[in-house]
Amino acid sequence: MSTSSTAVAWRRDLHAHPEVGFTEFRTASRVAGRLADLGWQVRTGDEALDPGARLGVPDDDVLAAAFAAATGDGSWAGDDRFLAPMRGGRTAVVATLDSGRPGRRVALRADTDALPIVESAESGHPPVAAGFRSTREGVMHACGHDGHVGMAVELAERLTADPPDGRVTIVLEPAEEGGRGAAAMVAAGVVDDVDVLLAAHLGIGLRSGSVAAAVDGLLANAKLRVTFHGRAAHAAMAPHEGRSALLAAAAATLAVHTMPPVPGHETRVAVGALHGGTVSNIVPDRATVLLETRADAGAVNEQIEARVRTMLEGAAATYGCRVEIEQIGTVPTATGDPAASEVVAEAARSTGLDVVVPTADLGVASDDATALMCRVQSRGGVATYLAIGSDLAGAHHTPGFDIDEAVLGPGVDLLERAVRAAVTS
Ligand SMILES: [Zn+2]
Ligand SMILES: [Zn+2]
């Protein structure tokens, strides 16, 4: 595989410099800079996202440290021209190429964030072997979003060289992981005048050389940060005076995992983190739990979330504690429109890719591109979520994850054909 293509070069650079949700200062500013240099009209910061509609924003010190790294020198430096409006986690970018000629207004979503995962250091892991392993320990592009951005930049270069009719917008979404970024971009109105929205994802169970023109099984989800407040006491001298937040959290964890399935629906409930207490001889007065619910229908997910909240309240009451529940992410379901997926299928066929019908096992994932899709559809546009197949070195969201770079070139071919067809559709 040649490494000379724009998509591969950008992908490798971003892979080595991963940034978690709402800290994508280097990534977002560099892409904004490249697209502006190509002549695209670029919006960032509050013009691209409503900061009040963000969910799960990192703490101020985390945001400040990431911003400082991007405003410094060296390989972590971002593009100075675009950093200032992004301060504080306003890391969305919307770039538009308007031909001024009649045609549809087409948008492509690419997500920019990485995950808090320690990347494999094994010599057989391709990014290690090829020298582009993450240089920020504990942060990793383990979902393929580096590839999404790389393809978007190469697509922009090709469209600039031969601009299509109508208008093309690239929507660079921060904090997709956890379902936190899209709603804030929707709230800023960035897709309100879009006629056709394409949201693409690499991998997700499809082999290299194949494409699913629509993936409709994406689950709705809700993510909750739960804090139990108890009362500290000496664990031996006065245990009866204590109220253990840790016991409440542990009981709640077990309880929510006993949630029965909902007949006829695909559902999930998972506690992914439980933290509490300090030492062995103090009744813990504080514990936190991070959990998520998912379902294949928004209403079912709301039911599950309501039952989880009841269980959390119940566990808190049992141990004499108080519970605070904060929603830190939410994602709706969405169904693609045949008018959009047909354009993608035709583009895939003319690129020489296999068009496959996604199997049900793709349906256990979520992507908050669905929030963008729902907005476009509610205003009369059409949308589809497509999957660009990639053989994977390891599963999504694991330390050994890696995409097959050979799919990036054909992926850009597919997206270019789809965009050029969509503007005249
Ligand atoms: Zn992911
Ligand atoms: Zn992803």
CATH top-level class of the largest domain: Alpha Beta
**Helix/strand/pairing class, anyone?**
alpha/beta
Mean pLDDT: 95
The fraction of residues assigned to DSSP E strands is 15-25%
Could you tell me how far the N terminus lies from the C terminus, measured between alpha carbons in angstroms? 34 Å
Task: Count the E strands.
Answer: 12
How helical, in percent, are the residues?
25-40%
Kindly report the CATH topology of the largest domain. Answer: Aminopeptidase
Low-confidence stretches: none
Largest sheet: 8 strands, mixed
Q: Count of DSSP helices?
A: 12
Q: What form results from the Cα inertia axes?
A: globular
Can you tell me the CATH architecture of the largest domain? 3-Layer(aba) Sandwich
Keywords:
Aminopeptidase; Alpha-Beta Plaits; 425 residues; 4-stranded antiparallel sheet; 2 domains
Produce a short descriptive summary:
The chain is α/β, with parallel strands linked by helices and 425 residues long. It has helices spanning 6-16, 25-37, 60-71, 80-83, 126-129, 145-161, 182-187, 245-256, 298-318, 338-351, 369-378, 408-422, and strands spanning 41-44, 93-98, 105-111, 167-173, 196-202, 210-212, 220-229, 267-276, 286-295, 322-331, 354-355, 382-388. It folds into 2 domains: 6-218 and 334-422, Aminopeptidase (3-Layer(aba) Sandwich); 220-330, Alpha-Beta Plaits.
